[in-house]
Amino acid sequence: MKRRTFLGAAAAGLAVASVPAPLRGLVGERAAPWLLVPMDEGQGDHLKAYGVTFRSLERGQKSEWLLNYRNGSFLLPADAATVRDCALSGVTTEPASEGEVGRIRAEIGQGNMDAIPLEKAPKVAVYAPPNAAPWDDAVTMALNYAGVHFEKVWDREVFEGGLTEYDWLHLHHEDFTGQYSKFVINYAGAAWLTEMMERNRSMAQTLGVPSVPAMKRAVAQAISQYVDRGGFLFAMCTATETIDLALASEGVDIAASYADGSPMDTGAAGKLDWSRAFAFQEARLELSPTTAVFSDIDGHQVNSPERRQPLGSFTLFNFSAKIDPVPAMLVQNHRQVIPDFYGLTTSFSRRALKPSVTILADEPGAPWAKYIHGHHGQGTWTFFGGHDPEDPQHQIGDAPTDLSLHPHSPGYRLILNNVLFPAARKKELKT
Amino acid sequence: MKQLRQPMLMAALLFGGVGGASAQQTATPGPLTRAQELERRGNHAAAAAAYAEVLAASAGDASALLGLERSLDPIGRTGEVLPHARTAVGAMPNAVVYPVLIRSFMRIGEPDSALAAAEAWARLAPREPSPWRELSTAAMRQRNRPLARRAIESARERTGQEHALAYEMAQLLAAEGNWSGATLEWLAAIGELPGYQLTALAALTPAPERTRQQILETLEKTLTLDARRLQAPLMARWGNPRGGAEQLLSGLTTASRAAAAEALTRFGEQLRSFPTPEAQRARAMVLEELAARSSGVAASRARLEAARAYQEAGDRDGARRMLGNVGTDADAAVTGSAAATLIGVLVDDGRMEEAEEKLAETAPRLVTEERQALTRRIAWGWVRAGKLDDASRMLAAGSTVEGIAMAGRIAIFRGDIAAGVTHLRMAGPYAGSREESTERTALLALLQPIEGDSLPELGAALLALERGDSSRAASALERIAVPLPPEKGGAELRLLAGRIERMRGERGSAERLLRAAASEAAPATAPAAELELARLLVTLERQVEAITLLEHLILTYPTSALVPQARRLLDETRGAIPET
After folding, report:
1. Domain count, chain A
2. Residue A386 — φ and ψ, nearest 5°?
3. Which tens digits make up the pLDDT trace of B501-555?
4. Cα–Cα distance for residue pair A339/A312, rounded to 1 Å
5. B73 touching chain A per CB within 8 A
6. I need a labelling partner for B337 at 20 to 30 A (CA). Which of A186, B2, B387, B538 fits?
7. CA–CA gap between residue A263 and residue A256 (Å, rounded)
8. Least reliable range by pLDDT among A192-196, A213-217, B82-86, B458-462
């Protein structure tokens, strides 16, 4: 036996020894070299499957995302750590021999499927206030539940150029117009609102910015530059709409007087420069400072009793895995039709979308899209309307969602598709 | 009633107007019917166009105008109703079209125009509060509180009614954080229309905690039965049901018999949904008062209900006092139920002989199932008293499945494990309540690996546990476990002892016992022991150890039924999901 072979066998033996007896058949020389993580109805925990794949990448393993094969399955090396992780997480796996993997590849080659190599776990940041609980935001809930490591950044880190350290950025449901989600009048006196206003004002003062709206616009511009230089941006709820409003309104006062001490410019709508925005154009601004609506970008207008639209269901588009792998990755799911859910921004009016935007999901027949994607410079952005896919009528003060009760949530799967998508090998990203 | 009569007149006028429209419909039935059908099908845009067509032909058609407003709302085009409303007001100014005009102005952000429309309407009906109600409601919907207040004050000034639009004012004041003022307005609204009682209760219940005392003080200063009737359930909902009952009882002195009975009955019903002993005691007090103010069968029924409530509250003296007064004039069902309740009280008191005598005396009036249930209850009372022979004697005549299950447990308490297991298996998993069924299954799981047919010491330990002597039970179980191998019952007995010690707060002892129970030699017991131990470690804030243990459980016993619970606790401990 050559020394290298001997050492390899010894290492394998040690790895096997670290695996509890009931799992030993899944690792070692005689075991199958691959684990197929099916993502169809047979999966025990769809959300944690993403975490298992992510951690496998973090350990330096190479994986593959089998687009459209059994609803977007993963192919992972059957090392001891991965076997253990799957067992702990309740993730269903199927041992796959080289022959079996060959058969899968042949099947993929013949249909609207593709195998995308996943090479490196992206470094994930979430733009969120330092005191935000993980349960405040669907993405942090999904990341925590799946076990995907992330770091929080806030205004100071963004101002100091800290975004360059990260591959992927999620925007907590932030109001980038700096108007505290326009809750100031209706929730006046509420402790959480007072605290939020105080924290933001104090941060603006510390950073030497004249007002909170000005600070948030500067943050939005820094995020835009981050994407322009190749970053991956994911946003949900009101962050989607307000970041574009903030970007388009450079030099124009679109904030109510309670936010910056001066009333909104009545002619603001005509002065917006939409070329700076990611996704939207020609939107009309909501002029009332008391209505918690920002513009007509949102199709559902949940906080306007006269304009509020009922919830329906949205349908994911079926993209060509071989020609359009990026949108195909973003829509991998075991459900094509998903119940809609409200947020401060629930959906995106088609009328307000830039022509270059790719619609990933919409409600058939409705004048809005739910889930959209596009490029900005060298990077990409994805916007997903709504607040919490498993709490369709989310209200302030509601009990947090417990994802262990929704391990197969198709809405949350869409969020996790976005987390894993930057791990795909760059050359494969054709669109 | 004056205030109510005027809206009725207005409604009559309105229906007259609509009737006129109907007559017109007969002449041209097509467009309006088509519009309504389109609206019914949810084709709002087409419905709106069809309604607009009707209005073009008949500008004052109230049905078409309301239909247009309804249809434009879901498609976000409510602003378009304004020109139609303006024309309609010109053609037929009445109580249907003016509200549409006011709402339209408010929606497009023209509050001054809305106010002018309300003024115009008010000139047609100067003593009528409706224009101002419509304006205040529309203003509140737009969160324009100053205008809402102005509308309500106008209504009061113009109509001369001090409390006109009290319902609207109550909501406005609550929105402004003036809960004391809102409370007074609610009382005024209830005074006008008692049906507002429940609405007021629902509106005041979510008041912020810091304002609750203020609300209660406002109610206390108001010396009316309406105030007491609002105060009592609010106190119950805010955690002081007994205080609520006392307040209500104190407010009944000047109330009429009928009003008092209504107030007591309603509050008693409201308390029924609160499962706490404190709420049941409050309910018992209310029912006792109701009984005192009733006569004949009604009084007996109220006393019986009060007795049950006192018993549920753990107040056996109260229950006995009520049962002693159940009248001889009560019907057979009431006396039978009273006797059954009394037997329960006697058993809880440990007065078993008296309970047996009462059962013998009452048995002819009871249905078979009720008699058997009481027999078992007395038998279990004998078990708790430690008198197993008397318990067996009670069960001897019966042959119900529940009786067999109980006989099995008694046999186990005697140490006759083989007979006990046989009886429990014979009874099956479904006899009795869910709790009894679960207890039996757990007992069988405990005894299954133990090989001895007769273990009097184990029976005595389990009996001690049943009688509430958990300390003695835990040490006896541990002692019995010593000579037994883990897989032959040693692990199961330690697991039970560990659980008892954990419940007793003896954490060190619990940890020692659970660690001993988590033996890989007893794979049927080890997952439960590890899960129990992990829970203990979490409460001791030793999360790292708990995580290691839970991972061990999941990986070592992947087919255990406890793995989902272990995964959930693992997620909670890691902070992956919110704590429950």
Report:
1. 2
2. 100, 165
3. 999 999 999 999 999 999 999 999 999 999 999 999 999 999 999 999 999 999 9
4. 6
5. yes
6. B387
7. 5
8. A192-196
B351 CB contacts (<8 Å, ≥6 apart)?
A: none
Rounded to a whole number, what is the distance in Å from the CA of A300 to chain B's nearest CA?
Answer: 9
pLDDT at A400: 84
Instruction: Quickly list DSSP for B281-310.
Output: HHHHHHHHHHHHT--HHHHHHHHHHHHHHH
- Extract the tokens encoding A55: 């951690």
Domain span holding position A105? 3-118
Summarised one tens digit per residue, pLDDT across range B356-380 is 998 888 888 788 888 888 899 999 9
**Residue A430: pLDDT over 70:** no
Determine the Cα–Cα distance for residues B350 and B346; give it in Å rounded to an integer.
6
Residue B269 at interface with chain A, using a CB cutoff of 8 Å: no
Amino acid identity of residue A4, one-letter, is: R
Which pair of tokens denotes residue B420? 């006990």
Which of A88, A144, A288 has its CB closest to that of B555? A88
Give the model's pLDDT for residue B451. Answer: 87
For the domain that residue B279 is a member of, what is the CATH number? 1.25.40
Find tokens 């998993």 and name the residue.
B429
**Does the distance separating the beta carbons of B76 and A134 come in below 8 Å?**
no
- Has residue B15 got a pLDDT over 70? no
DSSP category for residue A353: B
Which residues of chain A neighbour B80 with C-beta distances below 8 Å? none
Give CA–CA dist B84/B30, Å, rounded.
Answer: 20
Structure tokens at A205: 């003062």
d(CA A375, CA B215): 57
By CA distance, what is A143's nearest residue in B? B576
**Do B116 and B245 reside in the same domain of the chain?**
no
The last residue of one of the domains, among A118, A134, A165, is A118
B23: in domain: yes
Residue B459 pLDDT: 96
Q: Record the tokens describing residue B85, joined without a space.
A: 């409303």
pLDDT digits (tens, 9 = 90+) for B273-311: 888 999 999 999 999 999 999 887 788 888 888 988 998
Alpha-carbon distance of B124 to B138, in angstroms, equals: 20
Q: Note whether B70 contacts A: Cβ–Cβ < 8 A.
A: no
Q: Cα separations (Å) of B282 from A372, B204, B265, B540? A: 58, 21, 13, 38
The whole domain housing B259 covers: 223-330
Beta-carbon separation of A88 and B554 below 8 A: yes
Task: Give me the number of domains chain B comprises.
Answer: 2
Q: What is the pTM of this model?
A: 0.68
**Residue that finishes a domain, picked among B330, B364, B395:** B330
- State the SS3 of A261-297: CCCCCCCHHHHCCHHHCCCECCCCECCCCCCCCCECC
Min distance A347 CA to chain B CA atoms (Å)? 15
Task: Take residue B427 and report the two structure tokens written for it.
Answer: 């009874």
In terms of C-beta distances under 8 Å and separation of at least 24 residues, what long-range contacts does B451-454 make, across chains too? B451/B488, B451/B489, B452/B417, B453/B416, B453/B417, B453/B418, B454/B415, B454/B416, B454/B417, B454/B418
**Cα distance from A415 to chain B (closest Cα, Å)?**
16
Return the percentage of chain B with pLDDT > 90, whole number.
Answer: 58
Return the pLDDT at B512.
Answer: 97
For the stretch A180-228, pLDDT in tens is 888 877 777 777 788 888 999 999 999 999 999 999 999 999 999 999 9
Say if residues A229 and A379 touch (Cβ distance below 8 Å).
yes
Q: Count of CB atoms within 10 A of residue B60's CB?
A: 21
- Are both B3 and B104 inside the same structural domain? yes
Q: Is B50 exposed, middle or buried (0-12, 13-18, 19+ CB in 10 A)?
A: buried
In this prediction, residue A8 carries a pLDDT of 39
Residues β-bridged to residue A67: A114
